[in-house]
Design a protein that fits this description.
Four Helix Bundle (Hemerythrin (Met), subunit A), single chain, 141 residues, 2 strands, mainly alpha, two-stranded antiparallel ribbon
Length: 141
């Protein structure tokens, strides 16, 4: 894993001008995604799909926070570093990074996420989303 400074120097993370429209759009996309998938109950067939979509909603919230803080991030791994190194959210970083790895296994390699892990992850991501929105996105609610 590269460092935050290395991501900045490579251009994978860039300084950004505050774009309230883009922040609102990311939050709306996350809310739409959450609304659609909240109607579904996880089962053996859909748990991995639900997990990856909850991850995408979490990522969208994190990208909105990054934009608010003046960064545009172009790689999921760098979002975790943003949470850890810029926002000083070490516990959230560890959870996000674990979910990122699980999502990548499912998304890129077709690995099913075990049902119990998927349900646990979905519940944890719902909590993280609410925590992050309450802590950093109040003015966009």
């Amino acid at each position: 894993m590269l460092s935050w400074k290395e991501y900045l120097s490579k251009g994978t993370v860039r300084k950004a001008i505050l774009n309230k429209g883009m922040i609102k759009s990311l939050l709306a996309m996350a809310d739409n995604r959450l609304g659609v998938f909240a109607k579904l109950k996880p089962d053996q067939n859909n748990a991995s799909v639900l997990f990856t979509n909850y991850y995408d909603a979490l990522r969208e919230i994190c990208e909105a926070i990054a934009l608010k803080e003046g960064y545009k991030i172009y790689q999921h791994e760098a979002i975790g570093l943003f949470l850890r190194d810029i926002m000083h959210e070490d516990l959230i970083f560890m959870k996000f990074d674990r979910f990122r790895i699980m999502r990548n296994r499912a998304h890129y390699y077709g690995a099913m996420i075990p049902f119990a892990e998927a349900v646990e992850g979905i519940d944890a991501m719902k909590d993280l989303i609410e925590e992050l929105k309450a802590k950093y996105m109040q003015e966009y609610a």
